[in-house]
Amino acid sequence: MQIATWNINGVKARLSNLLRWLKEATPDVCCLQEIKCDDEAFPGEALEELGYNLAVHGQKGFNGVAVLSKRPLEDVTRRLPGADTDQHSRYMEVVVPGDRSVVRIACLYLPNGNPIGTDKFEYKLDWMDRLTARASELLKDEEAFILAGDFNVIPTPLDVKRPELWVNDALFQPETRARFRTLLNLGLTDAVRLLHPDEAIYTFWDYQAGAWQRNIGIRIDHQVMSPQAVDRLSAIRIDKHVRGWDKPSDHVPVIAELDI
DNA sequence: ATGCCGTTTCGTAAACGA
Fold first, then answer.
1. Separation between the CA of A75 and the C1’ of B2 (whole angstroms)
2. Which of A34, A38, A116, A141 could form a disulfide with A58 if both were Cys (CB 3.0 to 4.6 A apart)?
3. Residue with CA nearest B7 C1'?
4. What is the spatial distance, in angstroms and rounded to an integer, between the CA atom of A42 and the C1' atom of B12?
5. Which nt is closest to the CA of A114, judged by C1'?
6. How far is it, in rounded angstroms, from Cα A137 to Cα A134?
7. Which domains does chain A possess?
8. Protein residue nearest nucleotide B6, by CA to C1'
9. How do residues A36-45 score in pLDDT, each as one tens digit?
10. Rounded to two decimals, what is the model's pTM?
């Protein structure tokens, strides 16, 4: 089963790009972030024509996540527990049956958190604490699950071309990176780093200043897996060529292959 | 580099993003 995550940066503006990539890569599951539209405006028909079932947790203008699946979508739940007042659409869980077992997939858009020193950064850190609490709960079931999405976290200096430019950025703060490590230290695995331990791999290139052309990127889109999911993991790749297409998202897809 | 570009909206300027 191929499971993908992609921050699409506006699904309406990116629909032709999305359809092109889905036809090319044919993932079984695709988690989307920053769809930037509400449920009613989501372009569901075009995606259903490609054989996908849909689960959408939209928001007008900003944020918004969705999951596309060629297999049935079971037990769809929206929102990250721990803050009833949080109105941002950033988190959804689905359960997808495979040929031999099932996998729970969380599609997440973790807050950016900039600028540091503001309530936006506090919101990010609190959101990460809530994600860790949720992962801790899921681990008790001892089943395969994946946290897939735009984490807005640069885990280590290997994950950024020019770390000196990010020392005052929320994505690279010690508090941010410490919380990502805390999440992994529960017993989870950063799947890209497991299978590509020493490679400089990026998933985002800024639109500005020729960042793509100069390969000035960062790795912030991740698939964090439970032990039972890692046991089924055979490969994971980044489709970076998509960044070179016309009218691209500034992020590219991350695709994992699991024997589920 | 106080967003250089791109998407979105109770729009044509401002919010947001990373």
1. 45
2. A38
3. A10
4. 25
5. B18
6. 5
7. 2-258 (3.60.10.10)
8. A207
9. 999 999 999 9
10. 0.97
